[in-house]
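Researcher: Can you fold this with zinc ion in place?
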Amino acid sequence: MPTTPNQRIERSRRTILDALNQSFPATRQELSRRTGLAPSTVAGIVRGLLAEGLVHEHEAADHAGRGRPSARLSPRRPPGHIVGIDFGHTHISAALATTAQEIVTEGRVRLDVDASAGNALDQAAILVAGLLDRAGVPAGSVRRTAAGIPGPINQRTGRIQSATILAGWAGVRPGRELGARLGDEVVIANDAELAALAEHTHGAGQNVSDLIYVKASHGIGAGLILAGRRYTGAYGASGEIGHTLVQEGGSQCRCGQRGCLESVVSIGEVWRQLTAAGLPSPDHPEDLSLDALVGDPVAARIVADAGRRLGRVLSDLCNALDPAMLVIGGELATGGDALLEGIRESLRRFAQPAISDRVQVRSSPLGHRAALVGALTLAAAESPL
Ligand SMILES: [Zn+2]
């Protein structure tokens, strides 16, 4: 049925508001790319939304470090607070922020998260209560809480669905369980997906619509932003690249298979190789960053080799998805240029030239806070209007 100009404008207005609600802040150019609407259409509609007070405009630092910061837009949210939680394999981090995503306070506890979902969820609730207490914010002021989990979450059932990836959590519904402890349902997402969202809205990938964030830590997982949107897959298990076979008959992986990518290049395995080559063990076993070894020629060869192996798997992913950018996070990303060069070398060799010539490979500027920032971004997007 033909549409009138007014109906077309209304539809475009909805499209822009939806795109902005999904992830913000965003520039006019990003909104144009995400929605496929002409820049002039976006500019006109944004002018109207600003006049109506439905969105607001602010200058934000360009974390990519290039060019002049451009004016960014956010949907106007009622005043209040949001909470973001990041469950790692060995820690829980939480942050309290305003609905405009300004962080009020944050905290972190060390814990074997995989061992017991019940205990980890209890500790997260205690951490959040402590943050609210410290900031003097009543629990009723929290409009939405979002949490990242280092495993696949079935988006339809809300259950952790894999007994092979996060065994101690299999069958648990963390959103409901955490909600019961905090008093309101919690939005749950995979941590690599949240980190991808954070890099897209606040980090390295603000100017691209298609990016893959790779969390290279104790496990290896990828979060996908495709056509400007977080992509979870049909059952929430997209990006589980850590269990790609890279070495037939290799060492046993925690998933039961042999020779998985993460049994070969996890941060633990890289440290095992570093110490076997005579380099000193990490000062603190809980801090496995490679910062102190950047510049050491032996470490550089080991880290570059891990990069090449990771890059081999990323080449196939790039051939399938054609991203504009790979953002590498997790402790392995602290290996500096050696890691990135190893990845680029494999991309040149195994990805199609049309892809390897163009795809940018960067280490995560948000670092170990990426998933936490992503949890806040998701909480803001999902907070009631
Ligand atoms: Zn595996």
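Model: Folded with zinc ion in place. The chain has three domains: 5-75, 81-191+370-382, 204-365.
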